[in-house]
Specification:
alpha+beta, Beta-lactamase, three-stranded antiparallel β-sheet, two-stranded antiparallel ribbon, 4 helices, 9 strands, globular
Length: about 200
């Protein structure tokens, strides 16, 4: 769990790996500082790639199995996980402030039961915990690196969406890598029109 959660922290930290510690500082009985942990960061991903991963994981919350995390009502990203036979349910999620991992399961590998997926069993725990630790914190948004651009995309073709496309979504790209071709709107021919009518 620690390794998996730490891996997701790279996305939240815009590509920097910070190894978790359990003791930040040690004080004596008089409050004098005896030892203090000095955080060390290692660049393992470029900022743009890390942010794009965060954006994709935000879409898991908006459109996918992580939808229950929308109840936090703050910018957040995450991914559900469910093992075979419903023995383990996972949710690793993060906000601009915290990364948290949740595992639900039994020590003896019993199944959790029907429908007990990461989405249903684990993500609500993540929401409740995150709501508690963030209740006095101002709402923050994820920092967008300056070399990341957004484009309105047709989800079926991956090309730029036609202005009339109501199903278009905004996707993040490294500058210079966004699609340049626009999806063409094709109108059915007379033959196709009548054929569709007959098939119906």
């Amino acid at each position: 769990m620690i390794e998996l959660t730490n891996a997701y922290s790279v996305f939240a930290n815009l590509g920097e790996l910070v190894n978790p510690v359990f003791i930040m500082k040690i004080l004596d009985r008089h409050g004098n500082l005896l030892e203090e942990h000095k955080t060390q960061k290692e660049r393992v991903l470029d900022k743009d790639t890390a942010y794009i991963m965060t954006h994709l994981l935000q879409e898991v919350v908006k459109y996918g199995t992580g939808w229950r995390a929308k109840a936090l009502k703050r910018p957040n990203a995450g991914k559900t996980g469910t093992t075979n036979n419903l023995q383990d349910a996972w949710y690793i999620g993060f906000t601009p402030e915290y990364v948290t991992g949740v595992w639900v399961g039994f020590d003896d590998d019993r199944t959790l039961g029907k429908y007990e997926t990461g989405s249903r069993a684990a993500s609500p725990i993540w929401v409740n915990f995150s709501r508690k630790i963030l209740e006095k914190e101002p709402v923050k948004v994820f920092t967008v690196p300056e070399n990341v651009v957004f484009a309105r995309i047709d989800p079926e073709t991956g090309e730029l969406a036609n202005p009339s496309d109501e199903k278009a979504i905004f996707e993040a790209f490294k500058e210079g890598t966004a699609p340049t071709k626009t999806t063409q709107v094709t109108k059915p021919t007379i033959d196709q029109f009548f054929k569709g009518d007959l098939d119906a």
